[in-house]
Amino acid sequence: MKNHACLLAGTILGLLLTALPSLAQSTYESYTFTTLAGNAGYGSADGTGNAARFFHPSSVAVDRSGNVYVADSSNHTIRIVTPPGVVTTLAGLAGTPGSADGTGSAARFRNPSGVAVDSTGNVYVADTGNHTIRSVTPAGGVTTLAGLAGSVGSADGTGSVARFAQPFGVACDAAGNVYAADGLNHTIRKVTPAGVVTTLAGLAGYGGSADGTGSTARFFSPYGVAVDSGDNVYVADTANHTIRKVTPAGEVMTLAGLAGSPGGADGTGSAARFTVPYGVAVDGADNVYVGDTANATIRKVTPAGVVTTLAGLAGSFGSVDATGSAARFGFPSGVAADSAGNVYVADKSNHTIRKMTPAGAVT
After folding, report:
1. What is residue 350's three-state secondary structure?
2. Mind listing the pLDDT tens digit for each residue in 189-228?
């Protein structure tokens, strides 16, 4: 397990180092960022606003009431942030990795990287270090939906018969199906509410970049996933530097970016560039928001594949609340979008949760 993690970390670090010199100037829409919770110092503390602490938060999801759920990866916990910025721990115990079902602090996770929430408040977790998909009730009750802790593989099947290899992002549809970016398998998996796992697209063990249907398609270390109202799945195809779209039938197409060509350019389709995108989210109009991690920017992709930069400046890292290109991020990873047009960001290396509001301000 440790070797797998080091392999992927080394791959992404290499992509970061080779891509940074090629970053390009971008155009901006009007959004403002603020810091909703956390501070630039890491730790684990519940509290309000900058009194709270996170440790490498990797992913965020938002429910209908505006509560934000956080995969607090290096704390091995799942956190909740209310709209006023009050942070509590829903499940897991900070500093205590493991794999145990249970309620609240009795449950254990190992470097959870992905989180999603359904319409009834159930939370789904890509428990990356355990190679499992977990479910958390609103009361904090944790169960394992699919996979077997410590067992790496790519098998389809039900519950503990199924296997994953470092699942990263998760998303859920209106019917309660969960989609997972199975990173080291280079595949997109589907998990039914009964825990039945199938492979929607990609072929386990074969990284690459190819559009196509089902097992003829190729991904390269996919990280984030999101689902629209038509059950289309959007994928941050991280090591390919592209954003992909997968239909319910498993047909894969490249929405934006060009495989093997990192950069920071805005544009349409293959004219746009990303650099190690981690997170994706989709709004009610099927616009896709991207945590363009190695560019330290937040991007937007329309259904027609038109890419614009909402906040941050490609290649300029930091922690600044501001509007548009004046905002700075450390390592923007997971993103989520609510019905009011706000976008939430897990700013991983700054250990903060950021909020982006229309009109150009980051909070």
Report:
1. helix
2. 999 999 999 999 999 999 999 999 999 999 999 999 999 9
Percent of the chain with pLDDT over 90: 88
User: In Å, what is the CA distance from 332 to each residue of 199, 311, 328?
Assistant: 28, 11, 10
- Per-residue pLDDT band for 13 (boundaries 50, 70, 90) equals very low
Residue 31: predicted pLDDT: 78
The pair of three-digit structure tokens given for residue 246, joined into one six-digit string: 């997968």
Rounded distance, CA 263 to CA 273, Å?
5
User: Which residues are CB-contacts of 105 (< 8 A; sequence separation ≥ 6)?
Assistant: 89, 91, 92, 93
Q: Where are the domains of the chain?
A: 2-27+36-265+272-278
d(CA 188, CA 233): 9
Contact 228, 281 (CB under 8 A): no
Q: Which residues pair with 86 in a beta bridge?
A: 48
Helix (H, G, I), strand (E, B) or coil at 294: helix
Is a pLDDT exceeding 50 seen at residue 117? Answer: yes
Q: What is the mean pLDDT of the chain?
A: 93
| Band of pLDDT at residue 358, cut at 50, 70 and 90 | confident
> Can you spell out the DSSP letters for 100-126?
B-EEGGG-B-SS--EEEE-TTS-EEEE
Question: What mean pLDDT is predicted for residues 182-192?
Answer: 99
Sign of CA dihedral 328, 267, 60, 4: negative
d(CA 349, CA 35): 14
Q: How many other C-beta atoms are found inside a 10 Å radius of the C-beta of residue 153?
A: 14
DSSP H/E element including 19: helix 2-19
Pick among 3.40.50.720, 3.20.20.150, 2.120.10.30, 3.30.230.70: CATH of 2-27+36-265+272-278: 2.120.10.30
DSSP H or E run through 318: none
